[in-house]
Amino acid sequence: MRSADVARSVTVAALVAGLLYVAWLLRDVVLLAVLAGFVAVALSAPVAVIQRRLRLPRAAAILLVYVLIASFLVAIGLLIVPPFVTEVEHLLRALPRYVRELEDSALIARWDKQYDLIGKLQSQADRLPSLVGGAVTELETVTVGALERIVELVAVLAVAFLLLLDAPRLLNFVFEQLLPEERREQARRVAQQSASAVGGYVAGVFAVAALAGLVSFFVMTILGIPYAVPLAALMALFAIVPLVGSVVGAAAIAFVAAFSGVETAVAWIVFFVIYQQCETHIIGPFVYRRAVDMRPVLVILAVLAGATLLGVLGALLAIPAAATIQIAVREWWALRQARRAEAAPGEPAPADAMPPGAAPADAS
């Protein structure tokens, strides 16, 4: 290898390492940019439909989509918040009764005899005055964190607005100026399929979450589980997280159902197990296959990988990211096979170019 090639390779490696280091230092900004891109891609389809149907300027179409989403959230809030607040007040008023039931429980008495629960709780209560200062500090931290999340949300929506506004020009620049002519059509196809997959995934996730909340509400009403409205809202919120979110919501409902009787809690658990099986094997695969055309095993692996890297946010973004990668790989494979066919016209396709289990066309 010539010294010039070695120097070029070292320079490229150094540049890549430097860019990765800068990206790590700016990881919060990069994450916000990724979220803004995800929001922009998810909203690109409704923005295009509104712009085409109403013949609005693109900026006005984006603002209208934002207003419609905000109005929908406000309407849901007006329907849920009043009964939510009322039932939370009832829950707070019922807490002393629940505590008395725990104190009178034979199981708690047996645990207290074995582990001195009452004594430990009393010792913690004696320390309560000294913990107030720490609680105030924690409250301040939580408040500051909430404000930071609000600022980040505004930043994500603002960047997404700009991305949506400039999307046609940016895409045309990338396709027409940065890509060779033979790759442009393929790149446009990948971009369109990825946008469709992300939009379908977002719609599917919210549909599954809403279904989980509604079904949970009706079942809790039938079983007589109190505080059905806030618990159903909690179930829908947790169900947004793929695979594991609904389990957390169901556990909270089972805890509340236990105060209505062991048989009520058991009935809820039985229902949830059946519903989770339907969601895992029927509803979920149907939604993900229609939206992103992914096998259930790939969905599970993508969610696990995303959750390991970025927690809950990674679990939410994992499926559309994996779908985009799958679309790009399929297009690359199709192009590769097309080039092989052009290089050897009239010859049978090689074995690795055929689908698994397929036979040559001239096979008897």
Structure, explained:
- The protein has 364 residues and is mainly α.
- It has 2 domains: 26-113 and 137-178, no CATH class; 182-342, no CATH class.
- Helix content is 87%, strand content 0%.
- It contains 11 helices and no strands.
- The chain has helices at residues 3-25, 27-54, 58-104, 106-115, 117-126, 128-178, 181-223, 228-239, 245-257, 262-292, 296-343.
- The longest helix has 51 residues, at 128-178.
- It is elongated.
Count of alpha and pi helical runs: 11
Shape: elongated
Give the percentage of residues in beta strands. under 5%
Alpha-beta classification: mainly alpha
Domain unit count: 2
Order of helix and strand elements from N to C terminus:
HHHHHHHHHHH
Average of the residue pLDDT scores: 75
Transmembrane segments: 7-24, 30-50, 62-85, 153-175, 196-219, 225-245, 252-276, 296-329
Family: Belongs to the autoinducer-2 exporter (AI-2E) (TC 2.A.86) family.
InterPro entries: AI-2E-like (IPR002549)
Region (Disordered): 344-364
Secondary structure topology:
Elements: H1 3-25, H2 27-54, H3 58-104, H4 106-115, H5 117-126, H6 128-178, H7 181-223, H8 228-239, H9 245-257, H10 262-292, H11 296-343
Pfam families: AI-2E_transport
Protein name: AI-2E family transporter
Family: Belongs to the autoinducer-2 exporter (AI-2E) (TC 2.A.86) family.
Q: Which properties best describe this structure?
A:
single chain, 364 residues, mainly alpha, 11 helices, 87% helix, elongated, disordered C terminus
